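FORM 7B - TANDEM STRUCTURE REPORT

SECTION 1: FIRST PROTEIN
SEQUENCE AND TOKENS:
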Amino acid sequence: MSAGISGQALLRAQQEGRKALVAYYPVGFPDVGRSLDVLRTLCGEGDQPGADLIEIGLPYSDPVMDGVVIQRAGTRALARGVRTRDVFAAVEAVAATGTASVVMTYWNLVDRYGVDAFARDLAAAGGAGLITPDLVPDEAGDWFEASDAHDLDRVFLVSPSSTDERIVATANACRGWMYATAVMGVTGTRAQASSAAPELVDRIRRLAPDTLVGVGLGISDGDQAADVARFADAAIVGSAFVKRMLAADDAGTPEDLGAVRALLSDLAAGVRR
């Protein structure tokens, strides 16, 4: 597997003797402008370490993989006018900090925009590639063509139920890294990390030893990030950040990023243990 731009972010963390932190946040919540502020914050400020890779979510009306926290944020973003094109402004904002980003999107949004046009605009904005939770490699011919043409990474997902054959095929299709979902279910913070995650990553290591693996779904604090960092190349955190911004939005203080900064500091310390 080619490491690609996003995989290089994981490899740089390894060179520093630690694992990588991937931070997810959706564009458009609480509104487009403030979501860009959150994304810049997640890249790190001053002496505060940031995420190694930013995962920018594109809100969708039928988010089958997303739990209630991200669904609530996405619903508000859509109601407040976020559009597909806003994701490119988010990618540009992250790129300006020097941090790499990938876009997490349901495939219908890319298909409707135009697969090659989306890839073209994503590359022009400085994005590294796409995470496509509802697109499997078997049905990704247009995306293979467009991502090759515009030198973009392809991050596909596997789960604890994936067969050995599916894991190998997915690893061969990825460019950058592979997203291993730690649980059978939707996104959301959990009291403890999934016990299925180490076994899944062990299978990936055995079947596709050159594959970089990020583990997501459920990580909510630095302790859980440290647990995941013991066996994966990256810990992926999303709902925990969104939950804090939902609380700020509910309180009428969406400009207050203090809780996001505190969580980022805890998680960054976790992957460095």
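SECTION 2: SECOND PROTEIN
SEQUENCE AND TOKENS:
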Amino acid sequence: MEKPIPAPLPASKSHKPIGVLLGGGLSRRMGGGIKAFKPLGGRPILEHVIERFKPQCAQLVLNVNEKTEGFADTGLPLIPDSLPDHAGPLAGILAALEWVAVHHPDCDTVASVATDSPFLPDDLVLRLEEARNVAQTPLACAQSGDQRHPPFGLWPVALRHALREALVSENLRKMEVFMARHGCATAVWNTEPFDPFFNVNRPEDLIAAETLLARLTLHPHPAA
């Protein structure tokens, strides 16, 4: 008698987070224009960020508040702040958490990055998740050397109500204050041979980024 053919196992759901690129800033220090579109190695900075971040997430979305026509060319969903007056990166996180709760109710985590850090680690999400699991905290953020980088973090969707309350009722704007309040683990990267969280804020930073990109192209190093 032939053995019955077992029923196929159901496809497992991806446990990757939804990734949000925080592009809601005003780019005042760049001297005009949107810094995410500044060319680096012949491509916009934003393209470098997306290339590194996309494989780590189930889907990417962009938090932007103005001049969205260029961002629309990425093909990513554009999510503006749900609070007025450019309330800072926490408002971008809130917008992403609330969007995910509606559009991806099976996803429990959002990963965030800044759009001006073209060398972000390709193991960012993995190491943040490891740090969060070890510390048994709901939140995690990145650190390089002795500097913490709250915009590069993991955020539980379940904290969206507490975050809205903090932003609206307390006028809270500092990411680290909110993270410390709810418990935040830290994943640490070395700053040698380069800082993977190098960000482009000023024209001179863009020049430095071109130099670093050329060096990494010739002599690639893992961002450990």
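SECTION 3: OBSERVATIONS ON SECOND PROTEIN
Residues 1-14 have pLDDT under 50 and may be disordered.
Helices lie at 45-53, 68-72, 89-103, 124-135, 160-169, 175-182, 203-218.

SECTION 4: SIGNATURE
Preparer initials: ____
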